[in-house]
Design goal:
CATH architecture of the largest domain: Roll
Largest sheet: 9 strands, mixed
Number of domains: 2
CATH class of the largest domain: Alpha Beta
Keywords: Metal-binding
Radius of gyration: 17 Å
GO biological process, one term: L-methylmalonyl-CoA metabolic process
Organism: Epidermidibacterium keratini
Number of strands: 16
GO molecular function: metal ion binding; methylmalonyl-CoA epimerase activity
Shape: globular
Distance between the termini: 24 Å
CATH superfamily of the largest domain: 2,3-Dihydroxybiphenyl 1,2-Dioxygenase, domain 1
Structural class: alpha+beta
Strand content: 35-45%
Order of helices and strands: EHEEEHEEEEHEEEEHEEEE
Protein name: VOC domain-containing protein
């Protein structure tokens, strides 16, 4: 049913943050950059990141979701206390690996207090492909990775400060970057309050990562070792 992420509405504090977020993709003042077939849409009204999934035919996808026991209203599907949009996949924009810019969506993180319920909902009802389910005591969490097009929906069940059992929480997102050092240099010259932290080794061998500081939604930047989805 689901073919990927069509759109992410990312909460921002104001237009300054929206413009800065857009400039991560090297798009100047454009505040709704396309990364592959995914649109990153800054929103001053969203309380947390809102997800629209890409589907081949929204009407058929809504019917299937309803048959699988999900609440469906208009173009929204309610699952695990969250509302997801179902939208036709847009034409992919070539993700040019330009030094100093993000070129793709790597993964989106959801926190849950009920990992078994999450597997049943995201895998069984939404139909996402569960690729990995592991306990990660070194990070104090159980981590589940669902393939979602060219990206990953990473569902994390943290031992510390879990969300409400009745409602999952869309926590953050990660973008792929070809050259983290070049991106840090370019963004440091913007004069904005948002900063990219120190580059460090990622959890997947060979990757490097850096966190964005000051934005409303947590954003991680990943420099993949082999241009593969990392799901960190």
């Amino acid at each position: 049913m689901i073919e990927g992420f069509a759109r992410l509405s990312v909460p921002v504090a104001d237009e300054t943050e929206a413009t800065w977020l857009g400039s991560l993709a090297g798009s100047g003042n454009e505040t709704a950059p396309r990364l592959g077939s995914t649109t990153i849409m800054p929103s001053t009204t969203a309380g947390q990141i809102e997800i629209d999934f890409a589907v081949d035919e929204p009407t058929a996808a809504r019917r299937l979701a309803a048959r699988r026991g999900l609440d469906v209203a208009h173009d929204r599907v309610r699952c695990r206390g969250l509302e997801f949009g179902l939208a036709t996949r847009g034409e992919a924009v070539a993700g040019a690996k330009m030094p100093g810019a993000a070129y793709g969506l790597d993964h989106v993180v959801i926190h849950t207090a009920d990992p078994e319920g999450a597997v049943a909902a995201y895998g069984g009802r939404l139909g996402l492909d569960l690729r990995l389910d592991r306990q990660a005591p070194q990070w104090g969490a159980r981590m589940m990775f669902f393939r979602c097009g060219n990206a990953v929906l990473e569902v994390v069940s943290p031992q510390k400060d879990p969300p409400s059992p009745e409602r999952d929480e869309v926590w953050g997102l990660a973008l792929r970057v070809d050259d983290l050092e070049a991106l840090r240099e370019r963004m440091s010259q913007s004069g904005a309050a948002f900063q990219i932290g120190a580059v460090r080794d990622g959890r997947k061998p060979g990757t490097r990562v850096a966190s964005v500081r000051g934005t409303r939604a947590p954003i991680l930047l990943i420099e993949p070792a082999d241009n593969q989805v990392t799901g960190q």
